[in-house]
DNA sequence: GTCTTGATTGTTACA
DNA sequence: TGTAACAATCAAGAC
């Protein structure tokens, strides 16, 4: 059972109450939601800013799908430049898709997740060794992981090139 | 020039 | 275990 959670929930309480037409893209409310922003900022400042080297989160299957969907959407709607519109349309499409249709995106997402896990492992090792004031060991292991990543990326590049075609 | 917003779902990380 | 934050995208407004 899916529930509206996180940002969506927060938006549901505020933004979602407004008619979508009212939510024009680019029409940023001048410091409209200090609550939400400050929350994000706090987290960002306490985490992301402290760990700029921290690997970025892997895209979920939906985001992988969205990447492709954006291209299609742009082609079909060259005049629509609002990212919110793409997100909305993508969400509708995603929900209408069957498991079989979602499968390839989920597979891709799983791959990215595996990469992320590896990167996080290396990242955590680095953090540990940094505590000791020594990171030669992790540097080595990191480079090993990086090497693996390079190989994988190379494979992925090939795959992507094929897809590009 | 830099930052923030919007819209979506899924996943991660943290309390 | 529940929930907030974040992942991509980019035009445009605010500062």
UniProtKB/TrEMBL annotation:
- Note whether DNA-binding occurs among the keywords: yes
**By its UniProt entry, which PROSITE patterns does this protein fall under?**
HMG_BOX_2 (PS50118)
Location(s) in or outside the cell: Nucleus
GO cellular-component terms in the record?
chromatin; nucleus
What SMART domains does this protein's entry cite? Answer: HMG
**Regions of compositional bias (Acidic residues) in chain numbering:** 147-165
Q: Which SUPFAM superfamilies match?
A: HMG-box
Q: Region Disordered: start and end of each range? A: 1-60, 120-165
Residues in the DNA-binding region are 55-124
Q: Name one GO molecular function term.
A: DNA binding
Any GO BP annotation: chromatin organization
Q: Which domain of life is it from?
A: Eukaryota
Question: Which residues does the UniProt record annotate as the domain HMG box?
Answer: 55-124
Spell out the Basic and acidic residues composition-biased ranges. Answer: 18-36, 43-54
- Enumerate the InterPro entries for this protein: HMG_box_dom, HMG_box_dom_sf, HMGB_plant
- What's the chief localization of this chain? nucleus
Q: Which UniProt keywords apply?
A: DNA-binding, Nucleus
Q: Which family does it belong to?
A: Belongs to the HMGB family.
This protein is called HMG box domain-containing protein
Q: Which organism is it from?
A: Trapa incisa
């Amino acid at each position: 059972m899916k529930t509206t959670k996180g940002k969506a929930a927060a938006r549901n309480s505020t933004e979602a109450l407004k008619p979508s037409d009212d939510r024009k893209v680019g029409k940023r409310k001048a410091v409209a939601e200090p609550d939400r922003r400050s929350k994000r900022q706090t987290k960002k400042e306490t985490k992301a800013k402290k760990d700029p080297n921290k690997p970025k989160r892997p895209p979920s299957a939906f985001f992988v799908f969205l990447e492709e969907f954006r291209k299609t959407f742009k082609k079909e709607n060259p005049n629509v430049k609002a990212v919110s519109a793409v997100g909305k349309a993508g969400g509708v499409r995603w929900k209408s898709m069957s498991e079989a249709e979602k499968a390839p995106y989920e597979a891709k997402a799983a791959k990215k997740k595996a990469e992320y896990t590896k990167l996080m492992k290396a990242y955590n090792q680095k953090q540990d060794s940094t505590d000791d004031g020594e990171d030669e060991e992790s540097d080595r292991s990191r480079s090993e992981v990086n090497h693996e990543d390079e190989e994988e990326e190379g494979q992925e590049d090939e795959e992507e090139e094929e897809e590009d075609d």
